[in-house]
Backbone:
């Protein structure tokens, strides 16, 4: 379905698509635009990706540019780094973010540090795509949310889209970026759909948050799946509480201005991110707001995340630890 | 055409010049480190010169190498400038990495040197990636990974060789078996007689050569390079050599005795090569002495270069992180971790 929509005074062509389709479309356009771009990972080719994200890109671009790898995350993550340092623009898919652990030497000591240690004399245009999050009963080794590791580590950029448009625009920017960008896909939002610009030059800047819904009483800063769930809560509460929902989009760089401006307006803040609560995304968002907008807060801020556990297998246990709309609603209600 | 044609007398002279330059460089670096002038650690290549020079001589100028934390020799063998290398050891702005890398991280991507590396076993995956770029581009560029016997025990090395073998990438994997992984002898690290036996696991050619003989290394790498460039995939070469110095300077070396060191020194790669050139009438004693003097003079000039070099400004610690300007970092580069006033968000993004 194609429509024309009004985006801030400009008329843009958009199409309704899912997050999965938006990501695939971003890769298709960039593979088409730049012959230095290629995709590699486990089962990304013939199989089409374990979540069917790469779809038919293998048929379209061939086995050299949509490349199935052996199960060897350290090896092909390192190959991505070496390829990037020598002029390629690899997209490396790590099937589940939990498996990043297998490749972390190449991430931490090579990818993140090469440019710096070489005195800026190399670029590192790698995009790492990976799936995060619980909700499928996949147990702890296939349900982790680890974007905090990457955002914490100097030399890397980390993005966490919450909508199809954000997914497409941010992934295209990531692929075009000369810095290593980690693109974290929450596996429970692949089916979420929305309007996505069809212009092949549509990109979104890395490091800008998006106010998805304006409100007056409470700011909810959310990521990934919790963006949609927070928007639903805001709809439910409409008339009682006016909730502003921000899709953080980018963990590093972090758009402090948008967060602070929102809190200056609402005076109340909920941070909702599906990652462990201690020492993580929540802490950083709160710190930025406290450092720059302490006196705008009318109440202590609230955090919605995973209590400091792993994600268990049994559905009732999994539902216990995963944050959702009800947790966001409860946090809002504690604040107003 | 190879970087140095070691079949010719001119090439042999040039190879000896490179080996002596490495020995003089590392001799000076060791001395300057002992004098307390060079910060951090230095790991010297003395004794292993035939491997680096023999291998790089057999490569084409556009070929890439990856290296190890014992990388000075690889850098010089690849043609890097000892002045800028020495400046890097001293942490000076004029160094190859503007003082951010030091001895363990000297790199010059434009010259095909993808970096010395402080992580044992990290180079081969990078080499596989560079070979991937080469395989998808034009030309017949080849990538050679230097790594040590210690790295053969690391998983990522095997993942990298498996990838390169499976994809028939233009790579050469060269194990410098200097007989020690840090302070542990090679026989305590591997259950193999020859480390090149691992090649069988990937169904690629594997050879063990005398790493004290520059000609043997040159020929083996030359053949492997040709195979790689022809699209026939990687080769694994083990060069048996010996680390004359400790793992790092200041190492008390409790893991070996003088007799063992002397036994290997008798087969020193420079000394035996010089004798061969003398015996063959390629060079005279006087000419060899002249080459020694030239190498000493070049390293003297490198030290003088460092004397004139400048320390980086502290603000440069925040440069070279990202290709894009990241607001978080600009703030630190401005000299303060906090904005003034705070509440308006001011300079922060």
Residues:
């Amino acid at each position: 379905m194609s429509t024309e929509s009004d985006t801030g005074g400009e008329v843009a062509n958009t199409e309704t698509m899912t997050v999965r389709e938006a990501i695939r479309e971003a890769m298709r356009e960039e593979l088409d635009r730049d012959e230095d771009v290629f995709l590699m990972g486990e089962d990304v080719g013939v199989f089409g990706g374990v979540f069917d994200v790469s779809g038919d890109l293998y048929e379209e671009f061939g086995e050299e540019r949509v490349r199935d790898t052996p199960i060897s995350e350290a090896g092909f993550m390192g190959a991505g780094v070496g390829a990037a340092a020598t002029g390629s623009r690899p997209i490396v898919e790590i099937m589940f973010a939990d498996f990043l652990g297998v490749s972390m030497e190449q991430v931490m000591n090579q990818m993140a540090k090469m440019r710096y240690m070489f005195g800026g004399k190399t670029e590192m245009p790698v995009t790492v795509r990976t799936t995060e999050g619980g909700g499928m009963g996949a147990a702890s080794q296939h349900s982790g949310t680890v974007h905090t590791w990457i955002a914490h580590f100097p030399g890397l950029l980390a993005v966490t889209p919450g909508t199809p448009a954000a997914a497409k625009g941010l992934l295209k920017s990531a692929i075009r970026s000369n810095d290593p960008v980690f693109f974290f896909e929450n596996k429970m939002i692949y089916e979420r759909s929305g309007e996505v610009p069809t212009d092949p030059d549509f990109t979104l800047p890395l490091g800008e948050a998006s106010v998805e819904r304006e409100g007056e009483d409470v700011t909810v800063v959310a990521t990934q799946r919790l963006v949609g769930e927070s928007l639903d809560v805001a709809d439910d509460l409409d008339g009682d509480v006016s909730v502003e929902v921000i899709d953080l989009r980018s963990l590093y760089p972090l758009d402090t201005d948008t967060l602070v401006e929102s809190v200056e307006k609402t005076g109340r803040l909920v941070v909702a991110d599906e990652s462990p609560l201690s020492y993580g995304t929540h802490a950083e968002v709160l710190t930025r707001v406290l450092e720059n907008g302490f006196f705008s807060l009318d109440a202590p801020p609230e955090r919605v995340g995973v209590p400091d556990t792993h994600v268990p297998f049994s559905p009732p246990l999994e539902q216990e630890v995963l944050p959702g709309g009800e947790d966001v609603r409860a946090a809002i209600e504690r604040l107003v | 055409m190879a970087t140095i044609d070691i079949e010719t007398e001119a090439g042999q002279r040039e190879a000896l010049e490179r080996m002596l330059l490495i020995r003089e460089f590392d001799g000076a670096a060791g001395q300057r480190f002992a004098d307390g002038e060079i910060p951090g650690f230095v790991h010297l290549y003395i004794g292993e010169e035939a491997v680096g020079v023999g291998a790089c001589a057999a490569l084409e100028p556009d070929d890439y190498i990856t290296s190890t934390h014992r990388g000075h020799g690889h850098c010089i063998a690849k043609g890097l400038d000892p002045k800028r290398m020495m400046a890097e050891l001293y942490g000076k702005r004029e160094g190859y990495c503007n003082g951010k890398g030091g001895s363990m991280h000297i790199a010059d991507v434009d010259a095909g040197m993808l970096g010395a590396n402080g992580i044992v076993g990290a180079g081969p995956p990078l080499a596989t990636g560079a070979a991937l770029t080469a395989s998808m581009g034009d030309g017949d560029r080849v990538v050679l990974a230097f790594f040590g016997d210690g790295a053969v025990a690391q998983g990522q090395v095997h993942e990298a060789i498996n990838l390169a073998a499976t994809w028939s990438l233009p790579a050469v994997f060269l194990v410098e078996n200097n007989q020690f992984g840090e302070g542990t002898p090679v026989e305590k690290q591997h259950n193999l007689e020859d480390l090149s036996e691992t090649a069988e696991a990937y169904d690629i050619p594997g050879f063990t050569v005398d790493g004290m003989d520059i000609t043997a290394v040159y020929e083996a790498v030359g053949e492997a390079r040709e195979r790689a460039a022809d699209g026939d995939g990687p080769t694994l070469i083990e060069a048996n050599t010996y680390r004359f110095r400790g793992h790092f300077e200041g190492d008390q070396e409790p893991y070996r005795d003088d007799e063992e060191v002397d036994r290997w020194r008798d087969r020193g790669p420079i000394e035996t090569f010089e004798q061969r050139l003398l015996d063959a009438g390629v060079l005279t004693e006087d000419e060899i002495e002249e080459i020694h003097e030239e190498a000493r003079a070049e390293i003297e000039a490198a030290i003088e270069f460092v004397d004139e070099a400048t320390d980086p400004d502290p603000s440069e610690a925040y440069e070279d992180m990202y290709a894009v300007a990241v607001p978080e970092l600009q703030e630190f580069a401005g000299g303060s971790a906090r904005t003034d006033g705070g509440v308006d968000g001011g300079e922060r993004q």
About this structure: The longest strand of chain B covers residues 171-177.
